[in-house]
């Protein structure tokens, strides 16, 4: 981008510029003379190595500026510069001394970038020595030994002129045996913002303070009523523990005037840790989590920190908008996950932090956009896209305000790329952190001095700053907010600021999207797997009596599968998706048919039981069990080829369903049992078994035949016994009649005198009458002789007995 060559009040007087140039020439004269004498003064060996180091950009002595206080001095302040010098060469440096050098003001933002790239270059620009007593001397610098230094100088001794950013260099000069003259052997340049009085027009600065982490929770939950959550690891506890990354983000952000940008998934995960939870180990086992108090403390601190501050909620899980736009939109259902993630954001933040967040903003990775990303980003209802000036570039001599309309009612909030990337890289060393802070402040002040018009600037740093990066950000922001050229503004206000009519509003084409970012995107296969998992979940949920126990954790897990945090972690992303799908498969298999062996049917009809097992905690319903005969001409089920029956099974139970069958012929018939949902979709694997049909088996016929024979024999025996008894009774009657004819008168005479004998005879007659002459019983056989006459027989007649 082109920038103005100068700005109001930034240039020094001609006399002062001439004085500085003269000083620079005088300071470089000894070095020039040394270079001219170098061939004659360098015999060999170590001296030759020193010559190569002198010819390189950095000198043999490294200078580290570990602190510069205050970072943006005002009149009356004393500037203290502290750090270390280390002799990296092989020769001892004698007559060493550290000096401060103040260069001319840097008039453009690109000049700051150029100087930052040559911060330790011996051939780079130098400035005027402060000199005098503001020098620290060393008798000797031994190779490999670091020596500390600290120089304090009043601001008015630095000879700073008008407002602007000045080069401040810390240079070590000395001599070596190979080069016995005083020369600069190491230098470190940094920036000194100078704005001693309140600016007439202050820049409104919005600083985003991100609370984002990677996915830590799985879809798995406990089988108890509370659904104890399961964490994939215990790394989140380390981040929120005292001194951890997220703990530092909260403690450092407290008191700063920032806009908190929060991933609701992080809040939900920490909130889940406040109660009972499980942590999965590398071997697959789970152990109880023990960091409830840490989680409660972190949330309490965060709730206090965001009170009265603006909170912007990202969609749940911080989905990768660029990956979705480039690889996911052609997969059915992908955009619906973004909508669900957006809908879940506000409720999650409000419930946990007790503040109503803004859900109008989306934040693509590194603020890089193209038309498809903008379209996807706004499809879930957001109308403000946080982008960056290295994506939506301007061809202006100044930096315009962040807000600008890009069509269809969408506002691009363009973060300043220089200030947003100032804290990238490894800032664990104090010197690196100090340089980052000073560079950030320098860019901010230079931007403010470009024009007298007030502008709104947004700073969007990296999503997950390290502890050292967060500390540098907080230090720079605290200085900026106490400075004289900037004032704080929240993100919503920045988005509503009046756009600059000269600013670019055209979204870059897809071909302009950085290839380095495209290589890190989630592939199409990832979205296809998510869609496959969603399809299984949709089929599974319809049979559940308590759908929320499954739908909610799996829905949130699929939001995490689309997270921006998977960039650069492709293998881990695949493992997470596989784990979610595998766990769902296990739950689905918890409702299944029990395998059956061959079934034998004897007779023309029988009942076949089929058992449905439910290993889930909750009951299942809305299932149909269909039993189908593959050979209905031999075996029919329910009078047809198949029959369906509804199935309802309580959690942890099994249910047998009975089907009536009818056989038409002997032989084997294949039968298939299959569960279906009410909408006709197959559920689970079928169970196939054979039914062997035998109408009447030989064993059954033998049993039946034996029974019939026994009945026949028993009936014949009863018949013969009754016939014999009848014959015997008839003979006794004939004898009695004959005796009566012969002894009749006498018997009549004897009856009164012999009552006992008469009684006996009467009893016999009575018995006889109840026998042959008694009523005929239905089971008695028919008599096979003619009825006998009761009249007396003739003389000589034969009486058959």
From TrEMBL:
The chain crosses the membrane at residues 700-719. Residues 731-742 have a biased composition (Acidic residues). The keyword Transmembrane applies. Residues 745-756 have a biased composition (Polar residues). One of its GO terms (biological process) is carbohydrate metabolic process. Gene3D superfamilies: Immunoglobulins (2.60.40.10). Residues 78-89 have a biased composition (Low complexity). Pfam families: DUF6049. Keywords: Membrane, Transmembrane, Transmembrane helix. Residues 63-98, 496-515, 727-801 are annotated as: Disordered. InterPro entries: DUF6049, Ig-like_fold, TonB_box_CS. The keyword Oxidoreductase does not apply. This is Membrane protein.
């Amino acid at each position: 981008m082109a920038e103005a060559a100068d700005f109001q009040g930034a240039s020094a007087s001609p006399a002062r510029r001439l004085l500085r140039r003269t000083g620079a020439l005088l300071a470089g004269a000894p070095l020039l003379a040394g270079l001219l004498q170098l061939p004659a003064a360098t015999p060999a060996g170590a001296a030759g190595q020193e010559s190569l180091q002198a010819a390189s950009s950095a000198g043999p002595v490294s200078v580290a500026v570990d602190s510069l206080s205050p970072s943006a001095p005002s009149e009356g302040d004393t500037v203290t510069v502290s750090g270390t010098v280390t002799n990296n060469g092989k020769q001892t440096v004698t007559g060493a001394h550290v000096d401060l050098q103040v260069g001319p003001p840097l008039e453009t933002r690109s000049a700051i970038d150029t100087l930052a790239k040559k911060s330790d270059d011996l051939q780079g620009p130098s400035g005027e020595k402060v000199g005098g007593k503001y020098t620290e001397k060393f008798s000797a610098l031994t190779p490999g030994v670091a020596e500390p230094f600290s120089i304090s100088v009043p601001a008015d001794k630095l000879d700073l002129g008008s407002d602007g950013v000045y080069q401040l260099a810390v240079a070590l000069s000395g001599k070596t045996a190979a080069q016995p003259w005083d020369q600069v052997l190491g230098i470190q340049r940094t920036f000194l913002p100078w704005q001693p009085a309140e600016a007439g027009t202050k820049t409104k600065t919005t600083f985003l303070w991100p609370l984002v982490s990677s996915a830590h929770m799985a879809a798995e939950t406990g089988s108890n009523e509370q659904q104890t959550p399961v964490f994939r690891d215990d790394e989140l506890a380390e981040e929120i523990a005292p001194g951890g990354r997220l703990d530092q983000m909260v403690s450092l952000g407290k008191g700063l005037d920032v806009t908190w940008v929060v991933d609701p998934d992080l809040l939900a995960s920490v909130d889940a840790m406040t109660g009972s939870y499980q942590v999965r180990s590398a071997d697959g086992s789970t152990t109880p989590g023990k960091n409830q108090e840490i989680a409660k403390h972190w949330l309490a601190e965060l709730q206090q920190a965001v009170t009265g501050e603006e909170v912007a909620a990202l969609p749940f899980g911080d989905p990768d908008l660029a990956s979705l736009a480039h690889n996911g939109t052609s997969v059915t259902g992908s955009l619906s996950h973004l909508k669900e993630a957006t809908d879940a954001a506000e409720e999650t933040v409000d419930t946990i932090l007790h503040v109503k967040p803004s859900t109008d903003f989306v934040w693509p990775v590194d603020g890089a956009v193209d038309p498809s990303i903008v379209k996807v980003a706004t499809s879930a209802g957001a109308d403000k896209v946080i982008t960056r000036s290295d994506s939506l570039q301007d061809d202006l001599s100044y930096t315009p305000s962040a807000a600008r309309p890009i069509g269809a009612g969408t506002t691009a909030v363009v973060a300043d790329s220089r200030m947003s990337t100032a804290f990238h890289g490894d800032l664990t060393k104090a010197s690196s952190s100090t340089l980052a802070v000073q560079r950030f402040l320098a860019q901010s002040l230079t931007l403010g001095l470009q024009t007298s018009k007030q502008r709104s600037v947004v700073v969007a740093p990296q999503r997950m700053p390290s502890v050292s990066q967060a500390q540098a950000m907080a230090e720079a922001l605290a200085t900026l907010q106490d400075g004289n050229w900037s004032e704080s503004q929240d993100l919503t206000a920045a988005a509503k600021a009046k756009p600059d009519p000269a600013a670019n509003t055209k979204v870059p084409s897809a071909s302009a999207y950085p290839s380095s970012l495209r290589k890190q995107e989630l592939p199409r296969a990832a979205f296809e797997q998510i869609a496959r998992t969603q399809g299984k979940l949709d089929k599974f949920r319809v049979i559940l009596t308590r759908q929320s126990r499954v739908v909610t954790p799996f829905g949130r897990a699929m939001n995490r599968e689309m997270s921006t945090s998977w960039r650069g972690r492709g293998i881990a992303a695949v493992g997470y998706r596989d784990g979610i799908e595998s766990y769902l498969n296990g739950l689905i298999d918890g409702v299944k048919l029990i395998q059956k062996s061959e079934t034998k049917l004897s007779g023309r009809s029988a009942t076949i039981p089929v058992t449905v097992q439910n290993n889930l905690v909750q009951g299942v319903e809305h299932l149909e069990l269909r039993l189908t005969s593959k050979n209905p001409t031999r075996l029919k089920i329910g009078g047809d080829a198949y029959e369906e029956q509804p199935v309802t099974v309580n959690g942890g139970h099994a249910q047998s369903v009975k089907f009536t069958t009818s056989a038409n012929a002997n032989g084997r018939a294949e039968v298939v049992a299959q569960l279906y949902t009410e909408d006709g979709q197959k559920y689970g694997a079928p169970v196939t078994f054979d039914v062997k049909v035998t109408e009447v088996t030989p064993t059954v016929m033998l049993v039946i035949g034996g029974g019939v024979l026994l009945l026949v024999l028993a009936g014949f025996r009863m018949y013969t016994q009754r016939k014999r008894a009848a014959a015997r009774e008839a003979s006794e009657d004939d004898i009695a009649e004959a005796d009566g004819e012969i002894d009749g008168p006498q018997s009549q005479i004897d009856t009164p005198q012999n009552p006992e004998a008469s009684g006996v005879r009467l009893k016999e007659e009575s018995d006889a009458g109840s026998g042959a002459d008694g009523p005929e019983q239905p089971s008695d056989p028919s008599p096979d002789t003619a009825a006998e006459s009761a009249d007396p027989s003739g003389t000589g007649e034969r009486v058959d007995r």
